[in-house]
Protein 1
Amino acid sequence: MSKHIAFIGVGNMGNPMAQQLVNAGKQVKVFDVSEKAIKIAKETGLNVVNSLDELLSNSSAVISMLPEGKHVQELYLGENGVLTKISQDSLIIECSTIDIETSLKIGDHAKSLGIKMIDAPVTGGVMGARVGKLNFLVGGSQEAVKLATPILEIMGQKILHAGEQGSGVGVKICNNMSLGISMIAASETLMLAKRLKMDIKKVHQIVKEASGNNWALANYTPIPGLTDGVPSNNKYRPGFTAAMMKKDLKLANDAANSVNANTPLGKAALKIFSDFCEEGDADTDYSGISKKIGGDTWDYPFDPKGKD
Amino acid sequence: MSKHIAFIGVGNMGNPMAQQLVNAGKQVKVFDVSEKAIKIAKETGLNVVNSLDELLSNSSAVISMLPEGKHVQELYLGENGVLTKISQDSLIIECSTIDIETSLKIGDHAKSLGIKMIDAPVTGGVMGARVGKLNFLVGGSQEAVKLATPILEIMGQKILHAGEQGSGVGVKICNNMSLGISMIAASETLMLAKRLKMDIKKVHQIVKEASGNNWALANYTPIPGLTDGVPSNNKYRPGFTAAMMKKDLKLANDAANSVNANTPLGKAALKIFSDFCEEGDADTDYSGISKKIGGDTWDYPFDPKGKD
């Protein structure tokens, strides 16, 4: 009997990632603790098992995609956790976006048992996962990354190796802090132009070509009618929620505090997204922050909780 | 006798812009009130005249490139200002980065006299001016912009028409607010990675390819050794000074206040650059803000006032 890939956490991201592996001809067993995720996994034809023991027995690799560090810590380091159940020839690919400390703690424990592990959080969101075009931000030894690459290449388009284990989540945190700032900056830029009664379409075109450009302004434009296929054109339905961006900015803020780094705009961005979430917009796409910035000038279609 | 171009303000930017016109075979007379600028203009072979009357007599176009709104207002609207001395067939090309209100005031007065005017501030800095590769951000009527284009094309590579008169400075202000935020965000991102003991070169490469990218991070990188030909590789000698960035962020803040726009990160960036200038680094390149962000982790060559 050939070995299979054990996939833990088949939510919005994990489900389409597991599907990509199945579509590529891999043997995949999946596990989740969420009844909703299990139901959808069964409906979409994934091979759902009922226990970690069943999942991990005779597995060649473990992939996990969970919401937060506490879940990942419990999964791997808990009393009957993954590290108590797998052999030295297993490879762990941990894809959750979590704090560096937890990632390092699990990595160190795995290493002490002779088990190879990489951290490999992703960018590209649900759409990227559905079409196998995620980018993996990877931390781990050359050897472990080499072993993982054929699997990652099925789910992703770019495998970006940042350094030793823990560096994947490290670079993800730095990247998303920059992204959160960019989304607010893009909103401020366009909404200031609007208040000044300028042609916002022309301003967008010009700033995109000039030194004020950032990824969010150009590719995930927070105002409708300027860029095709973005959530701002679909009433700000996510996409990537404001709650997720707040979580990532919080991870960046905690990381910065832990090493006494100075991140004034990162902290300001965290406050702005936290307020937005508290005001009832946690489930809105994060580009909806333009509504909060725009204030009473903001007059675009906004129905983040509506049905398509 | 053929008509000439009257060029007012031949400092760091104006001098090389006027040189481009001369090199292209244009008749150019120049004027400045700064003895230093006049001395350099003479040394570099420009045709310096001693009065506005001499400058403007028989001129076909007036180009101005001055430091601040108050200078531009005095030049055009002062008792013996330009608008009292030129005829209706003159074209005004106002290239200074100033407040929208002053730009509109001069434009309205010119219009009442039947004189065509465009505002056309630039991006690309001294290096762009020297090689004729500025970008012009232009506001004005289609007719005036069409008349100005052959002259602008000598000095610039892109002529970006944003809307009616005043829109050029409007889009410049929006763009540079975004740029000021971006430079601080790039510094926070890279210095956080450094504090976290990550490989800053790999982090830079990865974020550049990912959603955390912005123009400053990619093209004007605030840490040495990552991008060729930027001031961070030359001990932060300008380039574009922190004082100039502070001025532009102040223009953005004033514009935002005038229309009650919400620009929290723009305001935070103004505070950070103001503090940096007050601490003695006004003449440093604006990418030197990475030193202020980096704090005691910052250990790169820094000698912004040294001689090349």
Protein 2
Amino acid sequence: METFPVETRERTEVVDVTGLVEGAVRNSGVHEGAAVVQTPHTTTAVVINEREGRLMQDLLDWAARMAPDGAGYRHDGIDGNAHAHLRGIMMGASVSVPVTEGRLALGTWQSVLFVELDGPRSRRLNVQVLGD
Amino acid sequence: METFPVETRERTEVVDVTGLVEGAVRNSGVHEGAAVVQTPHTTTAVVINEREGRLMQDLLDWAARMAPDGAGYRHDGIDGNAHAHLRGIMMGASVSVPVTEGRLALGTWQSVLFVELDGPRSRRLNVQVLGD
Amino acid sequence: METFPVETRERTEVVDVTGLVEGAVRNSGVHEGAAVVQTPHTTTAVVINEREGRLMQDLLDWAARMAPDGAGYRHDGIDGNAHAHLRGIMMGASVSVPVTEGRLALGTWQSVLFVELDGPRSRRLNVQVLGD
């Protein structure tokens, strides 16, 4: 497994990590298999979609409408960031992407995106490549 | 990895692809492992649930309430389909299903469902079967 | 693949199944790989997040706001639990977690959580560990 540092700079932010995952696939030497891409944090997510800049802002704005900050959550008595946990659960903590002929089987418009929901922070990303 | 064509006929639609995934598992000869089922598109999703017809309509209607079409998204200045991207992120672009004794470990009521969110279009589905 | 019984006691409830998944990883003898954790039911989910008690209540309350019970769903003419299916689709039926050095690569605050959305019932959890 490879672990990469991801430094986020904003309270909420989308970071394109496709290149990191592609590097892990190359380093693994796997020809046919899959990459499991996982965040080890509870207020971030990993998703696959188009990395177009305005869409990324739409994603962060939409997530904020789905689970607004400070909407009377019980956990906020402890930590103040329940909204970030809920958005992370909605988007998911890991994705699996097939690897074929030594490359990630992403579509033309797909990128692997790390979503910061309670930053800025020093984060990590785990990539495990399975197969032969 | 096997890639299957999926032709969608409606603007939004759910297509049961369980048979395609089961075929890929059989062809792979894998006895113990997992199937990674992935859409290479950014305005579709792959989920696991019951394929009952009225529930599938509920799913599409519910997704439309969660991320309504044309709700002032910035990306709509470029492409007009931000709602479909957001619904796809909410549902997810891939699922992993265990394979045991040469078969998908789906429950009695579970099917693998391809969700079209910006059709109709000619789509593809990737299935990679891992294991021995 | 290992299958574990999960008995739920409430209508909606979060059960920490991290220990079950860790046990399956140990039993598998896999050193480098990934665990695919899947629910075979259509009104439950498996997610990764912090198991803090108040946050778990927030999660169930939030899911109930996202897909309220009895909100005029068509499927409710058949079964009365469309809301539980929709919440399950939103959260997801499976997660994949890297295994490295013989252990699940969960972050400090992460647990694997089984989410009951239409209980109480006798449920099952499937864990398949891939790798060497």
Protein 3
Amino acid sequence: MIKRETNVDEILKEIREIINQMIPKEAKITEVEFEGPELVIYVKNPEVVMQDGELIKNLAKVLKKRISVRPDPDVLLPPEKAEELIKQIVPPEAEITNISFDPSVGEVIIEAKKPGLVIGKNGETLRKIAQKVYWAPKVVRTPPIQSQTIYSIRSILQSESKDRRKFLRQVGRNIYRKPELKSDWIRITGLGGFREVGRSALLLQTNESFVLVDFGVNVAALNDPKKGFPHFDAPEFTYVLKEGLLDAIIITHAHLDHSGLLPYLFRYNLFDGPIYTTPPTRDLMVLLQKDFIEIQQSSGLDPLYRPRDIKEVVKHTITLDYGEVRDISPDLRLTLHNAGHILGSSIVHLHIGNGLHNVAVTGDFKFIPTRLFEPANAKFPRLETLVMESTYGGSKDYQMPRDEAEKRLIEVILHTIKRKGKVLIPAMAVGRAQEIMIALEEYARVGGLDVPIYLDGMIWEATAIHTAYPEYLSKNLRNQIFHEGYNPFLNEIFKPVANANERKDIIESEEPAIIIASSGMLVGGPSVEYFKHLAPDPRNSLIFVSYQAEGTLGRQVQRGLREIPMVGEGGKTEVIQVNMEIHTIDGFSGHADRRELMSYVARVKPRPERVITVHGEPQKCLDLASSIHKKFGISTRAPNNLDAIRLK
Amino acid sequence: MIKRETNVDEILKEIREIINQMIPKEAKITEVEFEGPELVIYVKNPEVVMQDGELIKNLAKVLKKRISVRPDPDVLLPPEKAEELIKQIVPPEAEITNISFDPSVGEVIIEAKKPGLVIGKNGETLRKIAQKVYWAPKVVRTPPIQSQTIYSIRSILQSESKDRRKFLRQVGRNIYRKPELKSDWIRITGLGGFREVGRSALLLQTNESFVLVDFGVNVAALNDPKKGFPHFDAPEFTYVLKEGLLDAIIITHAHLDHSGLLPYLFRYNLFDGPIYTTPPTRDLMVLLQKDFIEIQQSSGLDPLYRPRDIKEVVKHTITLDYGEVRDISPDLRLTLHNAGHILGSSIVHLHIGNGLHNVAVTGDFKFIPTRLFEPANAKFPRLETLVMESTYGGSKDYQMPRDEAEKRLIEVILHTIKRKGKVLIPAMAVGRAQEIMIALEEYARVGGLDVPIYLDGMIWEATAIHTAYPEYLSKNLRNQIFHEGYNPFLNEIFKPVANANERKDIIESEEPAIIIASSGMLVGGPSVEYFKHLAPDPRNSLIFVSYQAEGTLGRQVQRGLREIPMVGEGGKTEVIQVNMEIHTIDGFSGHADRRELMSYVARVKPRPERVITVHGEPQKCLDLASSIHKKFGISTRAPNNLDAIRLK
């Protein structure tokens, strides 16, 4: 729990004086407050401020803060009234599908099939809306597939808006507190995911601030919290949690090994500060966290946290788009950049101590274009330390070229179909599943594949979230969707599996089929169900398209285990005979392979002084670190969990 | 402050049952308690237990604890009565000079000029004393020079014995608490003295325990606590202090850069646990700490701590002789070994987690025989990580051979005397001063040197402490003292300077003289006074015989600064012209030079898996680490302050 004494009242007083001098009286300022990483000015007449396009810019320059001007809550029309007016102003051809309000920021979110018509020529319609209803209008394209997750997140933010505003103010006051000392030293401690994959968590510390980058769980080691959870026993982490000194948590992307233990912090009241991440990461991580506890529940385990803890995650998340620069503490400035790994995945860039040092943490990243995403960003304003993943950091970890991988995938599928078999592709609901979908969709459209592709276990819902954030997808896909008007995710070849009965039907059917099901490493989820039933039949095929971590069933099967004891329906253990074909096609990975990792270091601008390799088996982290040192002469380290490394 | 819940009552209950079974009833056990790192059994009839020589050994084996049997306080004779009886029993030829009592351990300390006669044939006299007075007799040779420090320490321990026993019991209960978890990880954090000299402090952490090795102050950087003090702002250290989790502090040796901030912890109630060190280190550090605050006071500064805080250091110190093995927490076992640097200096060996890992921290050490000490111990039962000093770790840091250094010293002295000049040798009161004394004493005795050698600034008192611990001196010196009956420290050529008047007389006298005065780096103390007055006269000589740290006046003069602004008697700044000859003779150093450092790594048994270089300028630590890695293929590190290194 944040417990710092922030004493910003003095600072706010000075700021208010400056604002009163610069903003015309007619704007009628009612309040000036820090809310999250912004300074918010509430006025009764926002138009007065908006008329002068330079006014806010100048103010921001003078105050060195990001500034939002919002209508005073008193002047906002009641939502029903506002909705009515908006519908009158916007032409019906815009096809508004939903209007929702976020009172915590005075925003009205207008979903429309043709967002251009809501905006109007030069933003005319939008301006008119603002003038009439006072709510700040935000226009969103109606997602072609409805996402339950997105709607429930919006409704949480709407219904909890009072708490939310209180929270944002608390955060704002913490960010803009007077620093106790000049920035002096910086270090990072590995709490998890150092020389291993799973439970990623990095604690960055300065003499002023503390932030976590990622807070994951190792789903393959849940029976032992000492291995499954980040190191709660690291003394500096215990201290920071106990004293309420954690300024923020930044999440690189939604996968559970990076975000899966976040709600746990809320369950045990260990944190009530802000979580920074992109909007798609927020949505996807909530989806995966829910899925995670449901799987635990259905396996008869006591879930690590409850749905209401996930709700707290939503309430505490502040989203940032790529490239938005925000102060998150007196000496830390955060920017998220595209990582190319999954939807919304980010490289975290921290500008520390007003230029004392700059760190980028890649999270998981990809450095070639994929069907879904652009390659990871490799240009930063400044960069001294690069913390990079090493999943494929071994000297022989070269992946198959993407087109070859797709060719092999099709081959295996065609062979399997020919012998009337089924193809099971275990894939994380988020990421690989959609990449495979797009590849197969093209082949279905162009090459004539005509067996159904079943999507089971959150994959459909994850896909819905993809369609809601087209601006986070690759240029190609965006073009296809926006300009060619064709959304490949909507191809009818895709059949979401709604429940266990449908799943049973698919398994029992004699027809060939492709099944993409989560989890990707056969640790719980429907993929395990399919595997159990499809494994004994030699006509079937299993295709691994993603990294199989140490300790997972996927890894065992991949390594050749052919007799697997599993708990059957009656609760009894039975031995599953694996007779199906087992294939591994690694070209679909969302992780940079060895070549990409090395080329990232070669191309990243500016050249870092130090590279720290993490997120890989020990030998891969070490190998990558030593190769980078040899090739580029950059100082490298492959630290262990609980190592703390002084950066400055 | 120690705040752990120790719940040892259960453990003690079990132990008492076992003891009751093994010790005969007639011994009349009155109490069984942990006191410091021992289990103490109080009995009304100690003889009963003592009769069976194997009994305590067997008990120790069964209980896996160090065991002391003590007379119940009720049976102890009153001190006056006991003293009377002892004087009756011991023959007058023994020449008892002092008898003091330490009620906290039921000990009577008998000082005699002929200790052998107090012990008697086969310990007969001693046994007789024990039988009559019940106090456990400890016989000590009467030091030939009276040390005020030693007497005041003894009197503190005697007068505070009630508090002391309470303290020892608290410590014992902490040491033998039930560990919360199995030993799992071990790491060290550099709080000070990493890649620098000064403010040495290393925090060793396991998932069960926390100990500090050394807690020094950088006397050359006192104006900036951020550089002068160890890193109180290291989050794990803040945590450990705040939560009262620091199990112990171990002090390698008395120099202020290793022990100088200890009393500060007591001044601010940050610690009330045990300090482990050798008896001479305890005495010498108390002397140096007192000197330190007196110098601060006389310079018009507010001293960092008060005399009563130094008293707390005494009350909290538990002394160990070299080779004594003691549990200091549930998963840490400590042994101190000779380091050859100064009187009582130790290499700290920690056996961690019942064999999980073994660390040795050299502190400052010397690996060739000197006039005063044997070379550092290089043999350990087990050793995986070696943390070693690097003061002379640079590739060119070879010192002059000792005999050559002595020759040069004599040369400079003779030249100076010839031209009627004075020789000023700034030296730390502890260490170099005595080494130079012994060298000059031999030359005076054998070679005919006949100018007075003045000892100023605690040097005489430090010498007194040396004479009180002959068993900590080199074999040669011990032989000279015990068997040849000649103590070189007592040569009449040495003249302690008692006060400022005497000092003035020496300075103003026209006669040549040798002056050995502290501090060794010209940071306060009488050496600075002498320097001010002797510097302008070209007949005089200044000889540096020890390391001059960055930031000290000594370093500046050594580097060639010849005009020095200094505050004169009236408080005005005057510029001192340095016309005296400036010499540096490095062969007297108490630090291993580059050759010794490398040879230590070559010879230390067993060969460590990892060497961590500390306590040296950055380039020296790095150079030494890289040379050790190249030559021995051992993994090395030269960490920064605030780096934390996982050992296991």
